[in-house]
Design goal:
alpha+beta; 191 residues; 2 helices; disordered N terminus
Length: 191
């Protein structure tokens, strides 16, 4: 039942790789000693393949910059399409207030149009993609975000590209969480 040295092969059974071929591997640990895994510090071309672009501080700064510029867009009004159950879309602008406590929607093209105000704490869920609006009979697609309100209503918003869609969903989710935390912080403590 034991394995004899002659029965052991150095190639993989599932992929049938060549035993003499080096696999393209790289280590995520920065060390000058490759240790027992001698090819881990080499990329596919045989040269050291360190990606110095990963910088957690730089990534945080970049994320903050993206959020900050997106908030500026939302303060001035971001053009979107508000989806309806009649398989149509109305051009709108979406805003947030300076306190990041209220989301506002206004029909585009009418300067005197009233804004529908939605307190961020009333947003129960943010759903990205085409299936988010199905429960509400909204005509959502891959560029859509559905805001599910605590009242049970759903609002479908379509964006012009995936980047705006994803940034909006991420930012609104963060703002909703922040607003709820703010409300809890100021709520009286029950004794």
């Amino acid at each position: 039942m034991g394995t004899t040295p002659s029965a052991v092969t150095s190639s993989c059974a599932s992929c049938q790789c060549e035993p003499s071929r080096k696999a393209p591997e790289m280590s995520l640990l920065k060390t000058s000693d490759p240790g027992s895994y001698p090819y881990a510090m080499q990329g596919q071309n045989g040269e050291e393949d360190w990606d110095d672009a990963y910088d957690p501080v730089g990534d945080i700064f970049e994320a903050q910059t993206v959020v900050k510029s997106f908030v500026k867009c939302l303060l001035n009004g971001l053009p979107v399409s508000l989806l309806s159950v009649h398989k149509s879309a109305a051009p709108c602008k979406v805003f947030v207030d300076r306190r990041l406590s209220t989301l506002e929607l206004q029909r585009d093209g009418k300067a005197d149009a009233t804004r529908r105000k939605i307190p961020l704490e009333d947003i129960a869920e943010v759903v990205v993609g085409e299936f988010g609006g199905k429960d509400f009979d909204l005509w959502t697609d891959a560029l859509s975000v559905t805001l599910v309100l605590v009242t049970g209503q759903g609002m479908g918003i379509r964006f012009t590209n995936e980047e705006d869609r994803d940034t909006f969903a991420l930012c609104i989710s963060m703002f909703v969480d922040g607003r709820r935390a703010e409300i809890l912080q100021h709520a009286p403590v029950a004794r």
